[in-house]
Specification:
Order of helices and strands of chain A: EEEEHEEEEEEEEEEEEEEEEE
CATH class of chain B: Mainly Beta
Number of helices of chain B: 0
Number of strands of chain B: 15
Order of helices and strands of chain B: EEEEEEEEEEEEEEE
Helix content of chain A: under 10%
Largest sheet of chain B: 5 strands, antiparallel
CATH superfamily of chain B: YVTN repeat-like/Quinoprotein amine dehydrogenase
Oligomer: heterodimer
CATH topology of chain B: Methylamine Dehydrogenase, Chain H
Number of strands of chain A: 21
Strand content of chain A: over 45%
Helix content of chain B: under 10%
Shape of chain A: globular
CATH class of the largest domain in chain A: Mainly Beta
Number of domains of chain B: 1
CATH architecture of chain B: 7 Propeller
């Protein structure tokens, strides 16, 4: 009777192990793929096909993983962050998309009533809007869920403004903050190395909708701001500045 | 509110009452009501679209406006990227009794991660690649999943 077991070790090998129907021995068949580090083979992929007798213990010690015979090894493919409104914290976690498995990594303090986390396109910076104290918290990211404060939270330009939803340009250069309580959108230039935020010269920009909820088009050419029965459409120029194109009536008090 | 991956549509929750409305983003950059809309969550502050542009998800932490039934759930919608037509997804609403307050589709588009407030934790659902239907994976039972702080009302997920 044949029993198949597959074991993977990332990109390096793929094995099928079974009991030989003729000899009763464990047999491993597979392809071993690896990259040589010597100068003459640098960057080239070597492929070895093999069939041999092996010990199951040796295989699983060397390869890890498996199917039904030992616990799956988590291989996170994504990193997530939550803004915890009533805790004044942000939490990071890892996600293995092949299994849906989640792993808690860290929790860090923010300002008061954090509502929206955003990450720069290079995944090196995290910003969190703090609704109650009108600030933006900043963190340097290590790509594995680690977060390090990038310094004091940045205050919005408008005193008393409560930042709502925030968004980052596809270039990673600009942070847009909906200061809904002041009917304005504030725009900051992002220092990609330090996480520092500096308001661009023309900021803030008036929003007919209130600007409490913001979203950028994927091209980065348009910014939409919603609230107060309306949706504003802004054109975004290369300096991050906004020009109001139109305001569409949306017949509701709670666009989001 | 969110922009469709093809940059042709703006989806706005709450517009026109408790509705999820679709606006066309015209080549002139103006907005035009598409005419397609569905009844949406009463307090559905979180809205996300799968990378394939066909599945839309929204948290529904309190009740649905059309029948006032106490219905804590994740709402799923099917979306036609060619026409902008939106419709309730088969199997929706997907029951979730742990106060879902925020959600995000994973970068690969096969997992929906939900932040919940009873108590604060994160759980995951698998997304059916054909229909978009959700099936629970991790942390769906009470008090499981990974812990967060209290009321994790905002979430973002990026590739590792």
């Amino acid at each position: 009777m044949r029993s198949d077991i597959k074991a993977n070790i990332g990109l390096r090998c793929r094995l099928k192990v079974y009991v030989s129907p003729t000899t009763g021995n464990y047999v491993a068949e597979g392809v071993l793929v690896y990259r040589k580090s010597t100068p003459s083979f640098a960057g080239k992929t070597m492929i070895v096909r093999f069939q041999t007798l092996l010990s199951l213990t040796l295989i699983f010690f060397g390869c890890g993983g498996g199917s039904g015979h030992n616990p799956p090894v988590a291989r996170p493919t994504a990193v997530g962050y939550t803004a915890n409104i009533n805790d004044n914290t942000v939490t990071s976690f890892l996600l293995d998309e092949s299994t849906g498995g989640l792993t808690l990594v860290a929790t860090a303090p923010t300002g008061a009533l954090p509502t929206h986390p955003v990450v720069t396109p290079d995944h090196r910076l995290l910003f969190v809007s703090n609704f109650q104290d009108g600030t933006i918290s900043r963190f340097l990211l290590d790509g594995n869920g680690g977060m390090k404060s990038a310094g004091n939270a940045i205050h919005l330009l408008t005193t008393g403004a409560s930042p709502g939803k925030i968004t980052i340009s596809p270039s990673g250069q600009f942070l847009y903050v909906g200061a809904g309580s002041s009917n304005q959108v504030e725009v900051f230039q992002i220092n990609a190395e330090t996480g520092d935020l500096q308001p661009i010269q023309e900021s803030p920009f008036a929003a007919n909708s209130g600007g409490g909820v913001l979203v950028l088009s994927h091209s980065g050419r348009l910014l939409f701001a919603a609230g107060n029965d309306a949706i504003d459409v802004f054109a975004v120029d290369t300096t991050g500045a906004l020009s109001l194109l139109e305001t569409t009536h949306a017949d509701s008090q709670t666009e989001r | 509110m969110t922009v469709h991956p093809n940059d042709k549509y703006l989806l706005v929750s709450g517009a026109g009452g408790e509705k999820l409305m679709v606006f066309n983003i015209m080549t002139s950059d103006a907005l035009e009501a598409n005419g397609s809309e569905v009844v949406s969550a009463y307090w559905g502050f979180s809205l996300d679209i799968a990378p394939n542009g066909r599945f839309v998800y929204q948290n529904d932490p309190y009740w649905r406006a059309n029948n006032s039934v106490y219905d804590i759930a994740i709402l799923g919608y099917s979306f036609d990227p060619q026409t902008g037509k939106i419709a309730p997804m088969m199997g929706s609403p997907f029951a979730d009794n742990q106060d879902p307050v925020a959600l995000a589709v994973s970068p690969a588009g096969n997992i929906l991660v939900v932040a919940r407030d009873n108590p604060g934790h994160v759980a995951s659902y698998r997304i059916d690649p054909q229909t978009g239907a959700l099936s629970p994976i991790s942390g769906i039972t009470e008090n499981s999943g990974i812990p967060t702080g209290w009321n994790p009302g905002g979430i973002v997920i990026v590739p590792k």
